[in-house]
Design brief:
2 copies of one chain form a homodimer. By secondary structure, chain A is an alpha/beta fold. The first copy, chain A, is built from 14 helices and 17 strands. The N terminus of chain A is likely disordered.
Chain lengths: ~425, ~425
C-alpha cells in the first residue's frame, strides 16, 4: 500500500492489561489497520499498553511524537481500571468535566433495560475540557475527539462493535477531512472480491502477471486477505483525482482480475465487499421465489444460524431439523436405518427435510466432526445432500481442522454447493 | 498489574507491514503475553511496526528505553522485506556476519525436501556480530539472542509454531535465569470467574471495597474483562513466593470475591477460566443423566451450534427444531395457531420439541430479532420455554442490540435459564 499512503499518519494504541496478559486477542488493531489501509490512510505503528496511568501517558506521548493522529481503543468503561480519560486530560493539559447530558443518556440506557445505574457509570460522563464527544449509540461510554495542538487523539471503547461504529461514523470522516485539508485531494476507493474454494497462493498465481505489472503503480493495488473459513478476499484499491475517476479505475481493474480468477478457477467469486455466502443464497432464492429448509447433523444448526442473519430471511427460509442423534434422522427424516455418514443418508435427509418443512428446496449435511471416526469414515469427511425440484444430488467435501473448524468449513461448503445448485437452474 | 511486576520487564515488538494493514492477526503477541504472565514476567508494552528499516530501529530504541528485554517477532525470513537482522545489527553497532554452518543447515533443509535453495535464503545465515544463535528446528531462519549492554533483544520468526518452539526452548529459560540473577523468584498465577447477567459496573460496585483494599497490594489484583455477549470476566491474579503460596493466595481471594458477587447478584458465576455457558449445561445434564432437545425460532440454530461445540455432546444432545416460520411451529411443534411471540408459545414449543425429539428436557426460544415488531412485541422481546420433568416454565428476556446481537444474547440468555432450571432439580 506504500504508494497509496496518505499525508496523515495514524497510530493505534490499544489499552488494557488483559491484552498484555494475552487474555483476549486484540482484534481492534487488525480491524482498524484494514479499514485505514482500505481508505489509503497510513498506519506505521501499533502499541498495546496496560491499565497504568504513567505508562498510558508515556505511550500516548510516543505515539504523538511519530504520528499525526492517534486512535485509542479501550479504557473508557465505568470501572476503576478504565483510566484512558484521565490520561487524555493529562496529555491535553486540561481537567475532566462531567457532562450532564451524557449522564442523562447513560441513565436512560439503564432505564430502558429496567436496570438501575450504579454511580461509577457517571465516570463515563467525564470528558477532557476541549474534547468533542462521539455519541455512543450501542453502549454507555461515549467516544472522544481530543485536539492536541494540530494533532488529534480519538478515544473509542474496546468493545469491537462499539469501536467499529464510532470509527465509521466519526473518526474516518474526520481523518478524510484532515487529508483534504492537507491538500491530499485524491480519492481512494476499494472493492473486495469474495472467493471461496481456492487457496491464497493459487489466487496469487492466477493474477501474478497483473500483480507484478502494478508493483510500481501509484494508482491501483491488489491485495489478498485470507479470511479463514470465509475464503480469500481479493481487495482492489484505486486512487483517482476524484471519486468518478477512482471508480472508473476500480471497475476496469475488477474486470481484469475477475477474468483472470474465473479463467483459473471458474465460478468461485460469490460476492463483493461485505456480501457473505448467505447473502448469495438469499439473492438466488428470492430471484426464483423458492423456499428453503435444512437438515443438519455435524453442523448442528450452524447453517441455519448463518441464514437467519440475513434481514428478511423469513421470506425464503422456513426452518431446519438439527438431527444430531442418528435416531432423529431415522424417526423424523425417514433416513434408512444404518450408517448415517454417506451420500445416500445426505440425500434422504434432504428429502426428509423438504417433506417435513414443506419447502421447494432442501439442503442437508452429514459427516464426521472428529476427533474419532464414525461409520468407518475419518474426521473431515462430509456429505452434502441437495433436493431441488425433481433433482436430488449430493456433493462430498473433505475439510481440514479440529471439530469447530470442520463444522464451520462444512457449513460454508454446503452453502456454496447450494449456491452452485441454484445457479444450475434455468 | 503494576504492583505485581517482575524485575525483568519484557517488551514484544511484532514486525511486519501485513500486521499494520490488518491482513493477518498478531496471535504471537497474545501468546507470548500469556506465557510471560504465567511465568511471572512483566510485559508492559507491545508494538507493531512495518517492514521499514528506520521505523524498526526507532521501535527497538523505544522498547529498550522502557524495557529490560525485547522479543522481536518476524522479519527473519529470506525475502527483501525481511530486515530485522540489519536493524538489530544497527542497534548493537556491529556488522552482519554470514555463518557457514547455518548456510549448510539451510541447504540441507532444502535438500531433504528435494527442493533447490534460492540464493536469497542465504540472508538467513547473516548474524549480527556478538549475537548467539537459537537453533531452528522447524524451519530455516534461526533465532537470535542479541546482547545490548546489560539488556537483551531476542529475535524469532513470525511463524507461530517456529516462534513458540524457540520461546520455550531458549528465551523463557534465559529470562528466568535473568530473574533469578536479580534475586526475583516469585510466581504469578491468575484465575477468571465467568459471570453472566450482571453489568461490569454493577460487578465493580459489588467488589469495590475489596478492590480498593487491594490497590496497594503487591500480592493480589482484581480486574474486570467485558466479554461481549459471553458476560463479564472477573480476573484474580496473585503473586506468591512459590507456586503453592501463589495458589493459596488465589484460592483465598476467590472465596472473598465469590461471596461478594453472590451476595449482590446470586448465582451468576457459571464457570472458571475457559469454561463456557455450554460447558456448564453439559456438566449439569451429564451429572443428572438427562438428554436435551431444542426448539429455536429467532435464535435460528445458534443455541444448537453452541452446544455441539462441546466434545461428547452426543451423550446428552439429541437435536433441535429450527421453527423459523410460524407454520412450522404449528405443524411440527403443535403450537396453538395465533401469536408466536408469547410465553405460552414458548412453553408449547418446548413441549412439542420434547415430544418430537424424545428427550428428558427441552429448551425453546421465541422472540423478536427486529428491526420490525411482531405480534405487537418490540425488538428484543424474548420468551424462553423450559420443559423439565413435569415442570413447564417460561422466562422473559429483554435483550439489546441489532438483529445479530439480539439473537446472540437470546441464545446465551436461554442457556443461562436452562442452567438455573437444572440447578433447581433435586
Amino acid at each position: 500500500m506504500a504508494k497509496l499512503c496518505s499525508l496523515v499518519r495514524v497510530e493505534i494504541v490499544a489499552v488494557g492489561t488483559e491484552l498484555l496478559l494475552g487474555q483476549i486477542p486484540d482484534t481492534n488493531s487488525q480491524w482498524l489497520g484494514e479499514r485505514l489501509a482500505a481508505n489509503g490512510i497510513a498506519s506505521h505503528f501499533h502499541q498495546h499498553v496496560g491499565d497504568n496511568h504513567e505508562r498510558i501517558v508515556a505511550a500516548f506521548r510516543i505515539a504523538l511524537s511519530r504520528s499525526d493522529a492517534v486512535i485509542v481503543c479501550g479504557g473508557l468503561g465505568p470501572t476503576q481500571d478504565d483510566i484512558t480519560r484521565a490520561a487524555l486530560a493529562e496529555i491535553m493539559g486540561v481537567d475532566l468535566v462531567r457532562h450532564d447530558d451524557i449522564v442523562e443518556k447513560i441513565r436512560s440506557f439503564f432505564d430502558a433495560r429496567g436496570r438501575t445505574m450504579s454511580l461509577n457509570n457517571l465516570l463515563q460522563a467525564d470528558v477532557p475540557a476541549g474534547a468533542t464527544i462521539i455519541e455512543q449509540v450501542r453502549g454507555t461510554a461515549p467516544g472522544l475527539i481530543c485536539p492536541v495542538g494540530d494533532q488529534v487523539m480519538y478515544a473509542v471503547p474496546g468493545v469491537p462493535y462499539e469501536m467499529s461504529d464510532m470509527f465509521e461514523r466519526a473518526i474516518l470522516p474526520d481523518l478524510l477531512n484532515r487529508q483534504r485539508a492537507q491538500g491530499h485531494t485524491s480519492v481512494i476507493v476499494s472493492r473486495v472480491l469474495r472467493t471461496w474454494g481456492a487457496s491464497e497462493s493459487g489466487l496469487a498465481e492466477a493474477v501474478a502477471e497483473r500483480f507484478d505489472a502494478l508493483v510500481d503503480s501509484d494508482r491501483v493495488t491488489i491485495a489478498f486477505l485470507a479470511s479463514g473459513i470465509e475464503g480469500i478476499k481479493v481487495r482492489i484499491t484505486a486512487r483517482g483525482n476524484d471519486r468518478e475517476h477512482a471508480l472508473a479505475l476500480l471497475d476496469e481493474e475488477e474486470q481484469l482480475v475477475r477474468a483472470l480468477i474465473e479463467a483459473a478457477f471458474g465460478d468461485i467469486i460469490f460476492g463483493l465487499d461485505d456480501e457473505t455466502m448467505e447473502h448469495a443464497i438469499a439473492q438466488r432464492l428470492l430471484a426464483r421465489g423458492l423456499s428453503l429448509g435444512l437438515a443438519e447433523s455435524l453442523t448442528g444448526g450452524l447453517i441455519a444460524s448463518r441464514l437467519v442473519n440475513v434481514p428478511g430471511a423469513s421470506q425464503w427460509f422456513r426452518g431446519g431439523i438439527v438431527s444430531y442423534a442418528s435416531q432423529v434422522k431415522f424417526d423424523l427424516l425417514n433416513v434408512t436405518p444404518g450408517p448415517v455418514v454417506s451420500a445416500s443418508a445426505a440425500q434422504e435427509m434432504a428429502l426428509g427435510a423438504r417433506a417435513l418443512l414443506g419447502t421447494d428446496v432442501a439442503l442437508a449435511v452429514t459427516g464426521v466432526a472428529g476427533p474419532d471416526e464414525q461409520d468407518g469414515q475419518g474426521p473431515g469427511t462430509v456429505f452434502v445432500g441437495l433436493a431441488i425440484g425433481d433433482e436430488v444430488t449430493h456433493v462430498q467435501l473433505r475439510v481440514p481442522g479440529d471439530r469447530a473448524r470442520v463444522r464451520s468449513f462444512s457449513a460454508i461448503g454446503a452453502l456454496d454447493a447450494l449456491r452452485r445448485g441454484l445457479d444450475r437452474l434455468a
